[in-house]
Amino acid sequence: MIRVLIADDQALVRAGLRTMLGEPDIEVVAEAADGREAVRLARELRPDVVLADVQMPRMDGIEAATVIMAELPEAKVLILTSYDRDEYVYRALKAGASGFVLKDIEPAELVRGVRAVAEGDGMLAPGVTRRLIAEFAAAPAVLAPPLPVERLTEREREVLGLVVAGLANDEIAARLVISLATAKTHVSRILSKMDTRDRAQLVVRAYESGLVRPGSATS
């Protein structure tokens, strides 16, 4: 069972999200109307996934994500917003969020995203995050320490390139003509060897460290 905390300042949106997440393997354990309440409830209930809007009173979703990730490293944060403004994406991922989706997402895609984030797979909104991570993270003022890619096997480096390009596990499996289970195993081993919590953070670190530059990832 995936335990989810919903944080959004609009009651109607929270109700809609609760309905959308009405799946047998997902339980909405609480709702928060602002960032501070989200932090309090996360501390109390320790959900698997926090689905948080960016713009909320008292404390926005990204600030809340920063606190939650610092205090509850096992929790995953999925940022939800009506806006696709560049700085929101990068701020969210830098704060430790496992993904970023827009509010016009289809219900089935949101459910898939929550499941993926809960499994440590991350959720990168198609058409938004791939472009913006490249734009913002590839040229920081000071490059982050390089990823220890020497720890990876040749196949794992190949999979890493596809992850950075934004391919999901099923797409990686199809591209490399391997089973989905094998693709998941490769990604899991890469995350462990690179000391990253999920694929979203792996992508950020790959760009920040200079391992990947805009346009160089396989598309």
Automatic annotation (TrEMBL):
GO terms for molecular function: DNA binding. The keyword Phosphoprotein applies. SUPFAM superfamilies: C-terminal effector domain of the bipartite response regulators (SSF46894), CheY-like (SSF52172). Residues 145-210 form the HTH luxR-type domain. Residues 3-118 form the Response regulatory domain. Keywords: DNA-binding, Phosphoprotein, Transcription, Transcription regulation. Pfam families: GerE, Response_reg. Coiled coil: none annotated. GO terms for biological process: phosphorelay signal transduction system; regulation of DNA-templated transcription. The modification 4-aspartylphosphate is found at D53. PANTHER family: TRANSCRIPTIONAL REGULATORY PROTEIN NARL-RELATED, TWO-COMPONENT RESPONSE REGULATOR. This is DNA-binding response regulator, NarL/FixJ family, contains REC and HTH domains.
